[in-house]
Structures are given as C-alpha cells and as structure tokens.
Amino acid sequence: MSAADRARQAFAEAFGGQPEGIWAAPGRVNVIGEHTDYNEGFVLPVALPHTTRAAVARRDDGLVALVSAQHPGDRVELPVAELAPGRPDGWAGYPAGVVDVLRDRVPGGVSVLVDGDVPAGMGLSSSAALSCSVALALRDLAAPELAVADLVDVARRAENDFVGAPTGILDQSASLLCTAGHALFLDTRDRGSEQVPLDLRAAGLELLVVDTGTTHDHATGGYGDRRRECEQATERLGVRALRDVPDVAALAPLDDGTPEGGVLLRRARHIVTENARVLEVVRILRETADPAAIGPVLTAGHASLRDDFEISTVELDTAVATALEAGATGARMVGGGFGGSAVVLVDAGRTGTVARAITDRFAQRGFAPPRAFAVVPAAGARRLA
Ligand code: GLA
Hints:
The protein is of the alpha+beta class and about 375 residues long. It is about 40% helix and about 20% strand.
C-alpha cells in the first residue's frame, strides 16, 4: 500500500470519512550552514526521502481534530477558538500551531491525520516535516493566494510562537523549497535561493546520515542560549547581524579579557566561519567536478560546532572521528545540536566499512547502537493525492 493510501485509510478510521487530499513534506539534512539562519546568513540543506504525510479535511463544527499514526490513542480535539500557545502541546502543537496561524481560513475547523517516517528528535527536522505538510494542505484547501515560500513563515510562526521553539527558517525552507537532486542554497536575509545540483552518486560518493540515538528538544535549553549569545555578540559589535561581520579579525572587540567576552567571541567566530564555509561549498559544487572536495569543509564545520559553538556531544564527536578514521571524506554533526545525527560524506565503496566502524566504536564505548542510512537529495513538500 502506498504512503498516501495508508494515510487515507488511517484518516477514514480516525474520522469516518474521506480526506480532501493528502500532502507530504520531508525532513532535511543540512549539508553546511548551522545556526547561521537566525544570524541572517547562508544555509545549504537537502530534503530527505523521509516525509510526514498529512490527510486533511475541513469541518463545519469549529473543531480542530488531530490524530497521529505515531502517537496512537493520543487524539486531540478542541475548538479552533481555544487554540493558544502550548495548547495543545507535544507533537500536536506543530499542526495546531499552523491551524492557529491560518485560523481565519478554517473557521469551521479541520481534521488532520499525520503519518510520518522522519526520525523524531534526531536533528532531521521531523517537526518541520509535520508543520509544513499541514501548512501546504491548508494553503491548497483554503489560502490559494499564498505562495509556497510564504508558508515558510507560517510554519516558522507555528514553531516559534505556538510551540515555543526559537528556531530560524532553515528547516521550514528546506522542507518546502528543496528539489530532488539539488541542495538549496538560501540566503536567509533576503530569501534569495538557488538550486545547486548535487549528484553525489555520479561522483561515486554517498551521504550517510548517522543517527546517534541521542535526542534534543529546541524548545528548552541550549538552542535558545546560543541564540541569545549571538544576539549579545551582535549588539556588542554594533552590526545588524553576525552575517555582516566581514572576517574573524573584525571580532577582536569581543575579546575583552573576560570569560563572557571569550564565549561571545567563540560563538560569533563559528557564525562568521560557517557562512564562509557555505560559500566555499557552493563554490566547489558550482565550479568543480569534484564534490569530494567539500569533505574537509564539512569536517572543519564540525570542529567549529564542537569547539567554538560548543553544541556537540560525545556521541556525535565519536561518530565523526570514527568515520574519518575509517576513511570518510568529511563528517560533521547536523542540526541544532546537543544530540541528534551526524552526516558523513564517503566513497560509495566504503560506506559499509565506515558504518561498521561507527557501530563497533559505539558498542565499545557503551553507547546505544547508532542507525546509519544513505540519503540522496529528495523532493520538497508536495500534494500526493
Ligand atoms: C534547528 C533550527 C534551525 C537551525 C538549526 C541549526 O534545526 O530549527 O532553524 O537554526 O537548528 O542550523
């Protein structure tokens, strides 16, 4: 049975009727450009083949009814008028947040069944897949004048204002705007974007996602701290955004000899060097026939996230170091940090060796078994039926 048919059937079981349509939105893996999005910088994500499907129908009783195949028994039903930040919370907060942003368009309410296979809490943007699938559905059904690019902000507002996770626009842009076979080079300041061809297989390479099994939650803790530190550095430097800092030398004023100044210097240095890495990777992909050359740039990105931004974990560092020892071309942690996944660029013939080396090392160190899978750049959000 196709994913669309499964969603249709689950919708019928949950709500006793047919959906008006079925939409899918993918998770993402970011090739490079981490934590640059809320600093008005550059990102370069690809969409995953893994998606969330949303089967949706409008109602006429004013209720939002939400069911997830991944959380059976956890049915949420409340009047549209009673949606408020944190109510509902958990997985339901994402689709509810989208309905809340577009509440004028669905005054009669809406039934939503979601079914997805993007691993949750692994730095692969399962939350964006969830909110973007519902945003595209509501656009097609009730807000046709909105462009897909407008939905980036609908989904971001759901996440920022309703769920309370202070994220940027990387994940939502990737889920909505990526195309198969390409990485999305996005300037998060002016939203200009370019689809950069990324055919790793033709170059004999594979992009391996290594899920370390350690989860994160961006609504709490470290992610918000990093965002605040970047804001403080921006203020002290007197620039509009860290994007505007031309080079590392221009960060010198942050280094005032205090521990706090040292922290801000390191955080800002990550952003400045990471923006340069995005531009370098895009240059390599555009101008050379050698995508393997991006490997060392990815590895440098990991060192920066580990040492300057300080958001890696022992599991992520172990995965990256082991991949490189086993012959990978490049490796780095991906996403918001404090857990989640690493991405490894590797010669196709070595994928098995690298994956085994990581699994063995994790076992030796007493970590939970990692899960590795190869990905090719897949399509962004779309209507399935
Ligand atoms: C999370 C956020 C994004 C972005 C990344 C880090 O995925 O949702 O907005 O900041 O972390 O690059």
